[in-house]
Amino acid sequence: MTRLEEIRNQIRQTVADVKETNPMAGSITNSVTINLVANTQIAVGGSAAMVYLPDEGQFLVKAGGATYINMGTMLPIYEETLPLAVKTLKIEDKPWVLDPVAIGIGKLRTAMLKFFKEYVPDIIKGNASEIIALAGLWQLEGGTGESKVRGVDSTNHVDEAKAAAVSIARWTDGAVIVSGEIDLVTDGEFVATCRGGSHFLGKITGGGCALGGAASIYLTSSTPFIAALTAVSAFNLAGERAEEQTDAPASFQMAFLDELYKATPEDIADYHFEMEEF
Amino acid sequence: MTRLEEIRNQIRQTVADVKETNPMAGSITNSVTINLVANTQIAVGGSAAMVYLPDEGQFLVKAGGATYINMGTMLPIYEETLPLAVKTLKIEDKPWVLDPVAIGIGKLRTAMLKFFKEYVPDIIKGNASEIIALAGLWQLEGGTGESKVRGVDSTNHVDEAKAAAVSIARWTDGAVIVSGEIDLVTDGEFVATCRGGSHFLGKITGGGCALGGAASIYLTSSTPFIAALTAVSAFNLAGERAEEQTDAPASFQMAFLDELYKATPEDIADYHFEMEEF
Amino acid sequence: MTRLEEIRNQIRQTVADVKETNPMAGSITNSVTINLVANTQIAVGGSAAMVYLPDEGQFLVKAGGATYINMGTMLPIYEETLPLAVKTLKIEDKPWVLDPVAIGIGKLRTAMLKFFKEYVPDIIKGNASEIIALAGLWQLEGGTGESKVRGVDSTNHVDEAKAAAVSIARWTDGAVIVSGEIDLVTDGEFVATCRGGSHFLGKITGGGCALGGAASIYLTSSTPFIAALTAVSAFNLAGERAEEQTDAPASFQMAFLDELYKATPEDIADYHFEMEEF
Predict the structure, then answer these.
(1) Which residues form a coiled coil (chains A, B, C) (predicted)?
(2) Among B34, B231, C57, C190, which is least packed, fewest CB within 10 Å?
(3) Whether B107 contacts chain A with CB within 8 A
(4) Complex ipTM value
(5) Strand residues in A138-261 grouped as ranges (E)
(6) Given an 8 Å threshold on Cβ–Cβ distance, is A74 in contact with C53?
(7) Which of A31, A76, A150 sits opposite C31 (nearest CB)?
């Protein structure tokens, strides 16, 4: 079996496991897209629960198979909730996904993101600008101190973030997803390039958050790299199929969630991507 | 007129009243499903308003015909908001619906849910695990100290919660809804068993919250038992009709809300359920 | 070129500019409709970002071309966030849209809305009751001390708010939108009356918030009066087209967002309205 066949088998197995076992991943996530994240996690076969308070976050970390932390809309209590959550993740040796949305905006977000470096997220998902900014904040190669994040949007192209993504993945010994027109997934050694999806994923809010949420569900059943690649492949497949049915973003979002739900383990495992060694 | 005919008349009257008078029920509810709750309350003919702050909650309690309190995503300020709301409900003698989502998670949620026992909610809606856990927390028959709540999902079957639901309804002199594949509604004397609906209600987030929100609207115009049974019947009817149109959860959610809006008082009153004395 | 032709040219230009430049407007807005606001802002061609914390609000004010402040669900931290945001708006000389949702409910909301008088919002959007109440709170003509706001709904007709809208617009030297079955837009001198749209906009939550959010995007590229009129015309056009496709509110909302996305600069500029001098 080639490396690529092995990966496809693992993707198929991950999707099938999730659909069969309905694993729970708790989230501390932003209120703009919280509903879409939950519905996405359920659509791929998982179970969702979201909280804000410190001891509730701690409870979910322990109860879930993985945790999703998204920095979108920070609340004052997060100063306590987030450190307790990541410390508990480390104590419990449970995997987690970090979505450094809007990195560079505000003192608390910056402090938390710095703090997270030692608590090594298993998967980090961001757009190109976010990944470059995180590598910068963590003083890793490929990063830059000057964030080019504009609100929640990227002003960099995915390829510009490849070095940053690889160096972050090497630091965390996990996986990094750079989402964009083309998506990159890397474990620090290999870089998978994933085409497909739909431009409409950029015309709705929360496509990226939903991807992080789905990755956290898959992470309950597989390694960071496979979970990340599974989530990206599922999204590209569902996005492509949804775009065939619609010509506008709201009906696209509905069709996208429907297709995510309907995609079989085989569909997702067979979706095209390219691998290269870095 | 038989007892059953009487109930059907009351359901028809409740739905018609709400459609005609557009009653407002204020909510303190979770941010994951807050939009769906509001749209559901509007779809059945009511008006929605949601707040977080203590004096704003107090205002809505006074202004609304009923209040919906859902424990999904607790915020620090709820330590003040929730007690003031339920005290005001008692002073004003206004009815309310409690949705003890995620009972067992966190100190504040537990403290508030204990506190609510003396402020007797008129309708309590939960899945089987939540109802059993609430009876346990309130030291009523049928409950257990060990919560089997997993995040927001139930790990118990509806029938296992029947004794707990009845004992809670007797304590509150109100109604209890146990939602699940089959729904139970009890006033502590009679138990209505409601089949129908759709499995897709379990494949979207917020089906339960929306049911509680709808019940609070109907509660502005009728007794707890009738309001609860009306909401459950409306949901089962709309779920059944929506499922005929779709094969996936996102399009189901849209069709479900549409069918909820289109259901006539007669449609809802004629929906099948079975009654037994406990 | 007549005044009306000039206005239509400016509307066309505004819509085209926004579609071409993808301007960002940051928001501090309520959690009930936050997702719809973001998707609306993206659908018309803009970019959305939402925050709660003081320094994050300040950042977004500086980074965005305009800001949207909606008073729907107040959080305790808003006591710091909102004053800092509007002070920064003044220092940076950036335009903003105020949506005084639920004016009259709660001490903090009232204190903030009073405070905003000196920070003159460029566009104020409300239903008739909200606009009358705001004029009352600001002690301007046409207002009344007694709010007839019921939760988030209006109990006044649009025409009753005309005097209040005009006096507010004169105070701010900006524009006021009174939304309802018929919408009014005034700059204090002229009043545009806009018919069309759909009754379904009143059967979903957030139609008004979405209008304010869209207005903030258009405000990045034009004067308050043109931005307001552009947003109202776009909504009436999209509402009318969406209603032709549906018979219920959830499918309406989807079709509405789709039509908003598809509406061309010409479509929106050509939409009918009437102008009168006040």
Answers:
(1) none
(2) C190
(3) yes
(4) 0.95
(5) 175-179, 183-186, 190-194
(6) yes
(7) A31
